[in-house]
Amino acid sequence: MPPRTPTVWLGHAIRDERLRERIDSRHRELTVQAKVRGRAYRRARVAADTDDARRLRADFLASLGRLASFESASIRLARSQHGFQMRARADDLTRDYLRLWQLVARRGTGEHPLEESEDERRDYFSTQLGRLEGIADLLSLAGRDVRLFARSTTIPVTH
């Protein structure tokens, strides 16, 4: 009896390769966005204590948080070799997303230390919301339906 020829399963490999291509493409987009926002923040000719300067800084920090969390999450997802591993890692990322979302929500409603300035608090939230967006980006590429904010939830704005 002659030896059997190896069987090639194309179904999952092609889908996984397409996912990796989409992840790489999205990573390039997020990198360009972070560079553009960083350049706009550094080159801005506005006073540091104005709303425009705070908005530019918040946009820049959010884009850095988004890029950083997307990179770390995509590395975790890229280590999977099979579809079931990818689903398990996507479940882990979903849990991380929900934990981070709860952490940000709790920090927003809690008492703030007196030594923490308004700018430090804004920087923290900008970065954390960017991290949430980065994880949500990757999960949506992996076929998970996550939302940054629930539809029925209203977020109070405090000044």
What does this protein look like?
The structure is a single chain. The protein is an all-alpha fold and 159 residues long. It has one domain. Helices cover 70% and strands 0% of the residues. It is built from 4 helices and no strands. Helix 2 packs antiparallel against helix 3. The N and C termini lie far apart (80 Å).
Keywords:
159 residues
Distance between the termini: 80 Å
- Helicity level: over 70%
Strand-pairing-aware structural class: mainly alpha
Quote the beta fraction.
under 5%
Overall average residue pLDDT: 78
Give a short account of the largest sheet: none
Question: What's the structural domain tally?
Answer: 1
Regions with little confidence, pLDDT below 50 for 5+ residues: 5-11, 150-159
Would you report the number of β strands? 0
Globular, elongated, flat, extended or rod-shaped: what is the shape? flat
Q: How many DSSP H or I helices?
A: 4
- Determine Rg (CA atoms, Å): 20 Å
Order of helices and strands: HHHH
Topology:
Layout: H1 11-43, H2 51-78, H3 83-109, H4 118-141
Helix pairs in contact: 1-2, 2-3, 2-4, 3-4
Condensed summary:
This protein has 159 residues and is an all-alpha fold.
